[in-house]
Every structure is written in C-alpha cells, then in structure tokens.
Amino acid sequence: MDKVKTRKQGNAVMVTLAKKFNVSEGQEFYITQEKDGTISLIPKIKDYFADVKEGEFVDDEDELAQVFTTTGSELDD
C-alpha cells in the first residue's frame, strides 16, 4: 500500500497522486468522507451509458423482472 503526505497550498490541503494511478490533469471526482474518516474519490463520468450496446446491462435477474406480472393486491394502497 502506498503512503502519501498532505501539503498546504493556499487555503487548501493537497494530496498528490502517483503517476501509476493514471489520473489525467483536470479529471473531476466526486469526494466523500465517511464517519470513520475514510475519504473516497469517485471519477466523474460524463455519460456512463454513451457507448453502451443494446442489452449490454441485461442479466438473468433483469429478464425475470421484464416478465413479472402481479397476481394479487401488490399494487393496492
């Protein structure tokens, strides 16, 4: 596991990511911090489904949902 050290730059604290992580300059991330202090960076993807082929994300469970029909009062309030 790699270690990094934070550094102060202006009013921000910075973390440098090693080249081996293939992070492009200007790449955007969503950042979250858990209650235990864990910080996660999630790459922002412009359009996750832009290059998807039809049926690419369909699996056996999806096929079951497509043929599901109600048999009783499942939708009654």
Quick structural overview:
The protein is mostly beta strands and about 80 residues long. The radius of gyration is 22 Å and the shape is elongated.
List the SSEs and their pairings.
Elements: E1 7-9, E2 12-14, E3 29-33, E4 39-43, H1 60-66
General description of the model:
By secondary structure, this protein is mainly beta. The chain has one domain (7-66). It is built from one helix and four strands. The chain has one helix at 60-66; strands spanning 7-9, 12-14, 29-33, 39-43. The strands form two sheets. It has a two-stranded antiparallel sheet with strand order 1-2. Strands 3-4 form a two-stranded antiparallel ribbon. A hairpin with a 2-residue loop joins strand 1 (7-9) and strand 2 (12-14). The longest helix is centred in the C-terminal third of the chain and has 7 residues, at 60-66.
**Count of helices?**
1
The major β-sheet equals: 2 strands, antiparallel
Q: Specify the structural class.
A: mainly beta
Rg of Cα set: 22 Å
Count of the separate structural domains: 1
Strand content: 15-25%
Overall, the morphology is: elongated
Provide mean pLDDT, rounded.
86
Q: Characteristics of this structure?
A:
9% helix; two-stranded antiparallel ribbon; mainly beta; 21% strand; elongated
